[in-house]
Each structure stands twice: as C-alpha cells, then as structure tokens.
Amino acid sequence: MGRARASEGGNGFTLVELMVVVTIIGLAAAVAVWVMPDPRGRVMDEATRFAARVRAAHDLAVIDAQPTSLWITPAGYGFDRRVGGAWTPAEDKSLRVARWGEGTAADTGSRGERVRVTFDETGLADRGAQLTLSRGGSRASVTIGADGSVRADAI
C-alpha cells in the first residue's frame, strides 16, 4: 500500500513552481547588475586621486626646494621638475604621466590646449586652475588655488 501512494503523488516540482523559481533568480540577477558599481570607478574618485597627486607635487616642491609643475591636457596629465634650467619629467613613481579613465572627459577651459601650473619652492602656484571631469551624467571639479591649495568637489 505504501508503494502505491508514492507512485501516485509525484516526486518532482510543478511547472508553476519552476517558473516562480526562475522568475526570482532573474529578478535577483537584474538587481545585482543594476547595483554593481561602474568598473571604471566614479568620476569623483578620479578627481580625488588627481587632487591627491597634485597635492603630492606641491609638497615635493616645498620639501625639495625645487619647482615642480603640473600639465593637464584633455587626454591626461603629468608632472615635471625643474632641473638645470629645463623642465624634465618627474621621476617619482607617484608623479608619472597618467591618462584619464576610459570615458572621462576633461575640460580645462583652454580649448584643448595644455595647461601648466607651477609650484615654486614655497608651495605657491604661478596661477590658479580649474578642471572639470565628466563621465556619463556625473561631474566633478578640481580647483588649484594660487596659494597651492587643491580641492576636489562633486558638481
């Protein structure tokens, strides 16, 4: 008698149960993809990283008592040191040339031309500068003050 009942009741899942499970898995996957961060990072993170490197160049100019400059283009940025009366690329690992992240647009307000900001031995900049980074709908600005201050802000 026990065997007859086991064969009558069915031992699997119904089609409706399987459809519910597949729907739940699909919704969970959609939510996971939607909340995943951009693999390129946030544009504010890139602005903060740039600002930290500019601040490092400022500090290096003061510590070494040697002018250090920053150049910015729409494609990237880099740092130079004044050696023997000429600008040479900075050798420090933290001041190597860097390109903006994929999809990041940089606007220096100079119509695509290279902008150069020089920090003297006292840390003062020869000029102030403002850079706007944008990617997708996000924007961030980095302001370099003539007093050598550097600040990154979300726009």
From TrEMBL:
Entries under Pfam families matching the protein: GspH, N_methyl
Principal localisation: membrane
Keyword field contains Cell inner membrane: yes
Spans through the membrane: 12-35
General secretion pathway GspH domain span: 46-148
An annotated GO cellular component: plasma membrane
Record membrane topology: Single-pass membrane protein
Entry keyword Electron transport: no
Gene3D superfamilies with a match to the protein in the record: minor pseudopilin epsh domain
Organism domain of life: Bacteria
Family the UniProt entry places it in: Belongs to the GSP H family.
Protein name in the entry: Type II secretion system protein H
Species of origin: Sphingomonas jinjuensis
